[in-house]
Specification:
With 705 residues, the protein is an alpha+beta fold. The protein has 22 helices and 20 strands. The strands form six sheets. A five-stranded antiparallel sheet has the order 6-5-4-3-7. A five-stranded mixed sheet has the order 10-9-8-11-12, with helices on both faces. Strand 9 and strand 10 form a beta hairpin. It starts with 21 loop residues before the first strand and ends with a helix.
């Protein structure tokens, strides 16, 4: 089988280009070379007709056709026309392929340079670039010798035939220095060598068949190739090379396939599209958001203390590369988590106790003042932009094609664009983000186990619970991702500078006029998962937790009135905030917020801890945030994640999270019970209560006195 790679590289440069003008005499230049010039009086072909150049003025050309029509064109437009040509003009020799010359051996280029000196001396009588005052050697003076005489003298001097000198001159005139290169050194090699074409064809067939199989050895493939040749052509018909040659042939033909390497890499390479890779891009925040799930390479502890794997579901904005939201779940992601992801990305991220002041939105490059004017919750928000998607790109997983997720997107006016099956390049941005999360976050966390058992070390144990890991990830998104320069977010005016997702968001907000309208409290509750429960004497039970409040008193033991649910009540809950649930009031409308009855036992001992962090954040809010502070906060986060929680820290994180997390955007009816309870404030300190839900430690302390 002949190879298409066999041939000469020089064949690509032997053609001629059409001349866009005529050659003007250079007055004795080398071999009569000239410059292309367009003059008045030339006849040209343009737009399917012949024209006479009747005038030139600056960059304008005046043409008159044979029918008498006169038109004025820009020279750039005329010369760029497909059918433009100057009648009677010669051909312009091609430029020298300097890139190919650099790839040649040094001795081959030096030999071509020596031939160039001889050819130029035959043409002009002098070597290239002679110093001033140098005279031609005897027998090479063009004033007293002819070209034929000089060629014969050069042939005698070099000991070659006259035909050799003539061919060298012709090749130099057509191709420049490249024409003087020994073409044997430019010849490409054939991967198959002298192997029988039938053998090569079967080897390629067997290599393709290895894509979906488990990785084997070369000896296994040789055996399969031999069996296949016997089936097609009979025993001993196709000659086989020796063992060493056969192995070398397999290595050459399997380059880039990973046939004898990682099976995962082999399948990924085979799954790449054959067409041109077109990057995903967007011109404004939310124009396209890519969503996907994958297991995170960190062992976590389930509620019962058993080590389990966790799934990470993220949403990435293509325009700004912002991590809009991320949700961690043990075992497997459910459809309710996908809709919850939409809810999390469309509301501000609250500051948490213990977070550095550098993570505040007010201290970042985000347009905080502009956003604060439309949503008071931005006052205590972290530096993560709120992005309302126009379109989400998903795969065909059951999580995202479920009725729950589709209905949520339809309600929010979000277009769903499914990726093609088995085509991860359709959502390459989110796939690349998962890889970045592994290297920038997961590998620094205690319990990191690697992507597969071959990368796992000894003594890897789960130390973080799923909730604690969620806290660490949320903090890392703010400090380690949103403030970090991204290679895909280069400033066009300064391409060496990488913009961070927050900087890109701020720039696009100003350029595109983007103003996000975040979810209200009621909308946020509508996206939360639903449980159907009875309102008993003790309240509402969900997963062995009891939730109760005063407002449920008149509805105890009463049906909701929904016949389709046998009178059960609709209860919404946040899987990542177990401190309260929200019961829809089917009789009077609105929502009833029911806190966990054991919440005081968890929250009260740690009111002082949370209050100290709140006071520190207030004290530091006026300080200018620098990149050094961001880097210091990121280093502290990764160090804390790597060492794992101690006993005290684990209790603090769990109890604080149960009392504080995600009190996001609660409607007035949902917080009426809390507001109705009397709360004493110290006379010396007062604070404005924002529905965003920043933990009021002073009020909590007063409640349990």
């Amino acid at each position: 089988m002949s190879s298409p790679a066999r041939g000469f590289v020089g064949a690509a440069v032997t053609g001629h280009r059409d001349l866009v003008g005529r050659f003007a005499d250079c007055g004795g230049g080398l071999m009569g070379l000239a410059r292309p010039v367009l003059r008045v009086g030339d006849r040209v072909v343009f737009d399917g007709d012949e024209h006479l150049v009747v005038g030139l003025a600056g960059t304008s050309v005046r043409l008159r056709s044979d029918s008498g029509v006169v038109q004025v064109l820009l020279a750039s437009y005329l010369l760029a026309a497909v059918d433009f040509a100057v009648l009677g003009a010669a051909a312009l020799p091609p430029m020298e392929p300097h890139g190919l010359l650099e790839a040649l051996p040094t001795d081959a280029v030096a030999a071509a340079q020596r031939w160039r000196e001889h050819v130029v001396e035959v043409e002009t009588g002098l070597p290239p670039d002679p110093p001033p005052g140098v005279c031609p050697r005897e027998g090479y003076d063009p004033a007293v010798t002819t070209l034929s005489q000089r060629q014969r003298r050069k042939a005698a001097e070099l000991g070659v035939g006259l035909r050799t000198i003539e061919s060298r001159r012709a090749r130099y005139a057509a191709q420049g220095l490249w024409g003087l290169v020994d073409q044997r050194v430019t010849r490409t090699f054939d991967l198959a060598g002298r192997a029988d074409p039938r053998l090569v064809e079967v080897i390629v067939e067997m290599l393709d068949a290895e894509t979906g199989r488990s990785t084997g050895t070369r000896s296994r493939l040789i055996r399969r190739v031999s069996k296949r040749l016997e089936e097609l052509y009979g025993l001993g018909v196709v000659p086989l090379p020796g063992k060493t040659t056969f192995y070398a042939l397999l290595d050459r033909l399997s380059v880039g396939r990973h046939t004898f390497g990682s099976a995962v890499t082999r399948r990924q390479l085979a799954n790449r599209p054959e067409g041109v890779f077109t990057p995903s891009f967007a011109m404004r925040p939310g124009e396209q958001v890519q969503i996907d799930s994958t297991p995170i390479d960190v062992m976590v502890l389930a509620e019962d203390g058993v080590p389990v794997r966790a799934d990470l579901t993220i949403a990435v904005d293509v325009a700004t590369r912002s991590l809009c939201a991320g949700v961690l779940r043990p075992v497997g992601t459910k459809a309710v988590d996908a809709s919850l992801l939409l809810a999390k990305m469309m509301v501000p991220e609250p500051m948490r106790p213990g977070w550095a002041a550098a993570l505040r939105m007010a201290a970042s490059v985000l347009p905080h003042e502009r956003l604060l004017s439309i949503d008071a919750r931005m006052r205590e928000a972290a530096a993560r932009p709120v992005i309302v998607p126009d379109q989400v790109v998903i795969d065909h997983g059951k999580v995202f094609v479920s009725e729950v997720f589709v209905r949520a997107c339809d309600r929010l006016g979000i277009s769903i664009q499914p990726a093609r099956k088995d085509t991860p390049t359709d959502k390459a941005v989110v796939e690349a983000t998962f890889s970045a999360i592994k290297t920038l976050f997961a590998q620094h966390v205690a319990g990191f186990k690697g992507a597969n058992p071959t990368l796992r070390g000894r003594g890897v144990e789960a130390v973080w619970t799923i909730g604690q890991l969620q806290d660490l990830f949320d903090e890392w998104v703010i400090v380690g991702w949103q403030h970090r320069g991204h290679d895909a977010l280069r400033d066009p005016a300064a391409p060496r500078r990488k913009l961070s997702p927050n900087e890109k968001y701020a720039a696009l907000v100003a350029a595109a006029g983007y103003l996000p309208i975040t979810l209200s409290g009621t909308d946020y509750l509508e996206l939360l998962p639903v449980k159907w429960r009875q309102v008993n004497d003790y309240g509402v039970r969900i997963d062995n937790r009891i939730y109760d409040c005063v407002e449920l008193g008149r509805y105890r033991r009463q049906p909701s009135g929904l016949a389709g649910k046998r009178g059960l009540w609709e209860v919404h809950y946040d899987p990542y905030d177990l401190s309260r649930v929200f019961v829809r009031n089917h009789h009077d409308g609105g929502w009833i917020t029911a806190p966990w009855t054991h919440l005081p036992m968890v929250a009260a001992p740690f009111a002082d801890f949370t209050w100290r962090h709140a006071r520190r954040l207030v004290a530091e809010s006026g300080r200018e945030v620098t990149e050094t502070e961001i880097a210091r906060a990121l280093d502290a986060l990764l160090t804390r994640a790597e060492h794992g929680p101690d006993t005290t820290g684990r209790k603090i994180a769990a109890r604080t999270r149960a009392a504080v997390r995600h009190r996001t955007s609660m409607p007035e009816s949902a917080t009426a019970t809390e507001q109705a309870a009397p709360q004493r404030q110290p006379k010396s300190e007062t604070a404005e209560v924002i529905p965003f839900g920043v933990f009021d430690a002073d009020a909590e302390a007063e409640r349990w006195i």
